[in-house]
From TrEMBL:
The gene is nnrD. SUPFAM superfamilies: Ribokinase-like, YjeF N-terminal domain-like. It comes from Rhodoferax potami. Binds 1 potassium ion per subunit. Coiled coil: none annotated. Homotetramer. K(+) binds at residues 73, 133, 169. AMP binds at residues 405-409, 434. CDD domains: YXKO-related. Belongs to the NnrE/AIBP family. This is Bifunctional NAD(P)H-hydrate repair enzyme. (6S)-NADPHX binds at residues 72-76, 137-143, 148, 166, 261, 316, 368, 435. Its EC number is 4.2.1.136, 5.1.99.6. It catalyses: (6S)-NADHX + ADP = AMP + phosphate + NADH + H(+); (6S)-NADPHX + ADP = AMP + phosphate + NADPH + H(+); (6R)-NADHX = (6S)-NADHX; (6R)-NADPHX = (6S)-NADPHX.
């Protein structure tokens, strides 16, 4: 039996590519796990794992409120209660009354619990040291109804340590969307496999620390919905190399009053280690006060070299970028498309068509949810309701690699299982960090063999800088660059 710590609210464990499983994947694994006569079944194993985990987290707690739903998530809670009771803890078990009978595994757990002499209540206790949230797991379908909703509110109001079984009740395990109300957990123990919803959209804000216990199961490729973006390996920089070995990156952007965005992207490309960085402003009027390091070569968009160039188009590009896009969509060997360049593609079918026709695996687009919504002709809420699907749709529609930004950025590409990036935090939610990501992605795209690798590494590194940021220092986009 082993527990694995995966992430806290502000940081994530460096990992290889961990699989993330949808609810359907989890159910398929459960169904294919043959019970062994005389051995504890999955739910019994889950109960023991939960009890051990909670005790390790709160060793001095005495009074445990175990709030149980009517399904198998509640069954896990009942199994955990049996162990805590046997270990001398006071357990107060509340079960939701339902006209429907509990599923078979959970029914057996309830029978064992009663045989153990543990009372079953149908209301919440007045107070408790620790709550185990076993109300709703992957079976959640809709806004929690009474008494689930009332109990969730009580749990949150009490602000006591709360340990969620599988997912915080109210969180959609597949998408990271929350129904209201949702349990605000101190920590979450994901069972069998990690779920995508723990890592994207609202998941990171409600899970607390994320832990995994596989209960002895293994996932096969067919059971994997997506993966956690793995920690990249540093690119070797051979001794015998020269500036031509590390890519030429050109930033095309910076319309009037927006030049700072293009400068941020260019500086990010420079600090990320590009061999040469060019900066082509769409408008260079009024540049006083915009500091441009002398390492960056200024060109006009029309005098940039073509051969071997990686172009980052869009940063601060406003309306003007649209005029230049046909050229770069056709000629840039590698291309990162950000911000206003994405808005231009959203309203011009000729540009969208040119994007589709580019050579495979040479292009990365970096939309935030609103830009993604414009590209797909839908609402931002629809993008956020299923970020994995949205990123995959963008990749298929525009035949390119996608970084859908936001909490748990999603990296997608045609024909690949998407990745969710585990690094990064709310400190990145400020102006300019997107330009830094675009510039960094440009450099990596110029150096890596695939757009997929470049996008994955770029997201990881960008987020890691924020995770490692000193608590007392304000994070700004220009400071972020200095740490690249
Ligand atoms: N089976 C095993 O061996 C293991 C299961 N594990 C745990 O099981 C859960 C998944 O269990 P499941 O029963 O499929 O689903 P839940 O317990 O999450 O929820 C189902 C019940 O909740 C009701 N429900 C759903 N949504 C709501 C809502 N919004 N408000 C009120 N009630 C809701 C649902 O009622 P229906 O009317 O929709 O049928 C069910 O009564 C998984 O998460 C694990 O914790 C373990 O992994 C161990 C092995
Ligand atoms: K739960």
């Amino acid at each position: 039996m082993s527990f694995e710590w995966i992430a806290s609210h502000q940081s994530a464990k460096p990992t290889t590519e961990i699989p993330l499983l949808s609810s359907a994947d989890i159910r398929a694994i459960e169904a294919s796990t043959e019970p062994i006569i005389g051995q504890p079944g999955l739910m019994e194993q889950a109960g023991l794992a939960i009890a051990r985990w909670v005790l390790a987290q709160a060793p001095h707690a005495h009074f445990f409120w175990i709030a149980c739903g009517n399904g198998n998530n509640g069954g896990d809670g009942a199994e955990a209660a049996i162990h805590l009771h046997r270990w001398g803890k006071t357990v107060y078990v509340s079960a939701v009354k339902s006209p429907k009978s509990a599923p078979a595994d959970a029914s057996r757990a309830w029978t064992r619990l009663v045989a153990e002499g543990i009372a079953v209540h149908h209301e919440a206790p007045d107070s408790w040291d620790v709550c185990i949230d076993a109300l709703l797991g992957i079976g959640l379908q809709r806004h929690p109804e009474p008494p689930y909703a009332e109990w969730i509110k009580r749990i949150n109001q009490a602000a006591k340590p709360t340990f969620a079984i599988d997912v915080p009740s109210g969180l959609d395990a597949d998408t990271g969307s929350t129904f209201e109300p949702v349990v605000q957990a101190s920590a979450t123990l994901s069972l069998v496999g990690l779920k995508p919803g723990l890592f994207t959209h609202q998941g990171r804000d409600v899970c607390g620390d994320i832990w995994l216990h596989k209960l002895g199961t293994e996932s096969t490729t067919e059971h994997i919905r997506c993966t956690l973006n793995p920690t990249p390996k540093p690119l070797p920089r051979p001794h015998a190399s020269h500036k031509g070995s590390f890519g030429d990156v050109a930033i095309v952007g910076g319309a009037l009053g927006m030049q700072g965005a293009a400068v941020l992207a260019a500086c990010a490309a420079l600090h990320a280690g590009a061999g040469r960085v060019f900066l082509a402003f769409l408008n260079s009027e009024g540049l006083q006060g915009v500091g441009i390091p002398p390492d960056i070569m200024l060109r006009s968009p029309d005098t940039l070299p073509h051969q071997g160039l990686t172009v980052v188009a869009g940063c601060g590009g406003e309306h003007d970028i649209g005029h230049h896009l046909p050229h770069w969509l056709e000629l840039a060997e590698r291309l990162v498309i950000d911000a206003d360049a994405l808005n231009a593609i959203a309203i011009r079918p000729d540009l969208a068509q040119a994007l589709v026709q580019r050579r495979a695996d040479t292009t990365v687009i970096t939309p935030h949810p609103l830009e993604a919504a414009r590209l797909l002709g839908c609402k931002t809420t629809q993008i956020q309701a299923n970020r994995l699907d949205a990123a995959q749709r963008l990749a298929e529609t525009f035949q390119c690699t996608v970084i859908l930004k936001g909490s748990g950025s999603v990296i997608a590409a045609p024909g690949r299982k998407p990745r969710i990036n585990p690094t990064g935090n709310g400190r990145l939610a400020i102006g300019g960090t997107g330009d830094v990501l675009a510039g960094l992605t440009g450099t990596l795209l110029s150096q890596r063999s695939t757009a997929w690798e470049a996008a994955s590494e770029s997201c990881y590194i960008h987020g890691l800088l924020a995770d490692q940021w000193p608590q007392q220092t304000t994070l700004t986009a220009s400071r972020l660059i200095e740490h690249l």
